[in-house]
Amino acid sequence: MPEPLTTGELLALDRQHVWHPYGPMPGRQEPLVVESASGVRLRLADPAEGHRELVDGMSSWWSAVHGYNHPVLNEAAHEQLGRMSHVMFGGLTHEPAVRLAARLVEITPEPLRHVFLADSGSVSVEVAVKMCLQYWRSAGRPAKHRLLTWRGGYHGDTWQPMSVCDPDGGMHHLWSGVLPRQVFADAPPAGFDTEPDESYARHLRALVARHADELAAVVVEPVVQGAGGMRFHSPGYLRVLREACDEHDVLLVFDEIATGFGRTGELFAASHAGVSPDVMCLGKALTGGYLTLAATLCTARVADGISSGEVPVLAHGPTFMGNPLAAAVANASLELLLSQDWQGEVRRIETGLRQGLAETAGLPGVRDVRVLGAVGVVQLDHEADMAAASRAAFREGVWLRPFRDLVYTMPPYITQDDDLARICAAVTAAAREG
Ligand code: PMP
């Protein structure tokens, strides 16, 4: 074993060589060094604002729903490591992947039936888009190759997903003019607990109708638009999209990579609307945040359409497709989630966030406070000073990652009430000082 690096050595090498998400090069950011993580706590190499451990308010970007270093997930990983960590999926198959696919079909809305096990959320969206385009190509309608989405969305960092992210001011506006040209509806009116606005519904219907001949699919995040702005909208718009897609022969894709596995209070956000998509993308919490794995599910109609085409295969096959280690942990994570009262826990967190953030709404500089399931968002009336906001959170002993005008949290479902109160105090402090 090599000698462990000191924190100073590690940060120096990090600065010299390592890209971080949306990070500049060479290292103008100063990340915190995490030594280990357990339960809801990240243990740091050096204290931040006096705290050696931080309560995780981010679930490592929606994924670590059971917390870190969970004995059940550890055991599943160890057991699977003893069998095989990876084998190619072309021409071979294995129990972890097959079991996972069957279980996902069981728990997702009917009539989703076939599962492509991708290796990241972005790739699962790429695969979803490919499925839709190929479906129409196979049907002899290759002109149907564009996508419709609403503004303010986020679907990942690879090419097709970037093309359906928010085109104005979003993270990928650098590439406007180069990305495939998609059709954008306005962002849905805000408010989960609202009746659908009829004029907005008309706008959606009209756009689908106008572009039907060139649209392969509508691609949206149901109920919560995440990284594009942490906005919640009425589930009613999903029903509007379903009807419009059915009427005009357009496929409907739900990106549930962030919302899947209970985050919004339903196992999948589509269930708030009682609507089923033709294609659904899952990721993040699929493995409880342990390993990189995602899934694209589609209906028999989509799969049969592709299979009856001139090229009757879905031409996608990443090296790590169906990774057995990730699939085994995903199976364990799913059973762990479904064997407990996860909905009760998410409701408890929702109540805790509502109570803990109630007074934050009255702070100067705060535009809006919203909570849905295990997601709490404070929107400021200005861009947050990220460094100041993060320092304020550290002082409360909490890890948050404010961005733009948003201070937000999506804690692990196992977060207990005292830690949840700390998270709320940290969000409030970050909103006040950021
Ligand atoms: N879709 C949504 C809704 C997401 O939130 C994300 C990740 N933030 C992605 C897609 C991309 O997933 P990944 O980062 O695993 O590629």
TrEMBL record:
Residues modified as N6-(pyridoxal phosphate)lysine: 284
Binding sites annotated in the UniProt record for pyridoxal 5'-phosphate: 121-122, 255, 318-319
Binding residues for substrate: 61, 154, 284, 317, 401
Cofactor(s) annotated in UniProt: pyridoxal 5'-phosphate
InterPro entries linked: Aminotrans_3, Aminotrans_3_PPA_site, BioA, PyrdxlP-dep_Trfase, PyrdxlP-dep_Trfase_major, PyrdxlP-dep_Trfase_small
Residue(s) at site: Participates in the substrate recognition with KAPA and in a stacking interaction with the adenine ring of SAM: 22
Reaction(s) catalysed by this chain's protein: (8S)-8-amino-7-oxononanoate + S-adenosyl-L-methionine = S-adenosyl-4-methylsulfanyl-2-oxobutanoate + (7R,8S)-7,8-diammoniononanoate
Subunit structure: Homodimer.
Protein name (database record): Adenosylmethionine-8-amino-7-oxononanoate aminotransferase
Lineage: Bacteria, Bacillati, Actinomycetota, Actinomycetes, Kitasatosporales
